[in-house]
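for ur thesis appendix - 3'(2'),5-bisphosphonucleoside 3'(2')-phosphohydrolase. copy paste whatever u need, i formatted it the way the template wanted (i think)
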Amino acid sequence: MTDHQLAAELATRAGELLLGVRAELAEASAQERKDAGDKRSHDFLMAELAAARPQDAVLSEEGVDDPARLRAHRVWIVDPLDGTREFSEPGRDDWAVHVALWEDGELVAGAVALPAQHITLATPATPAVPPAPQQLRVVVSRTRPPAVALAVRDALDGVLVEMGSAGAKVASVVQGRSDVYVHAGGQYEWDSAAPVAVARAAGLHTSRIDGSPLRYNQSGAKLPDLIVCRPEHAEAVLAVTAVG
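the 3d part is after this line
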């Protein structure tokens, strides 16, 4: 099985597990669903990666960060449940599972499962991005849209599209449901590694908000900002975000 196939299979199977957790704990509290989802998906992914790629390092949101990964040639970067809040809310489908592989400085494989949508987007090939509408759509969080995203919306005469997890937001650009995702104010590598790998496979622009490259498997695992957008919008978006 190739790394691409493994990423897609694990993200999909973890998503199926999470749908089961959601159904099993339908009458439980939101916090119980969040905790169970995070733990069970993390445990599943750790066990499967240990079996399939025992020599590789792993960086998971729910695991202890082992500094040995900084010396490794291959590191799986995973978010077992991206969008725990949305997962905990019955009926929401804007949450995801992220599985990505970093190798010698680059993201080389990745998959974003959207379990409640019954979709997995994965490298090396993704569906063609649908044509863009006339008015640019900027995808943002439901509760805390960053000022930089609002600035992009205003400068480019766009509209906001509200959505939950980072993976769902990036997937929405790949799916043609939005055109620009701009985030600033704090994220970690597991929030964007798999989505960025998938976005690149779809031919989208990815960068920091100042236009510099996104770098993974770094000390501390913080990667506070990013842009994912259609390539034809990149110059105009960066003209707003790179100021200062």
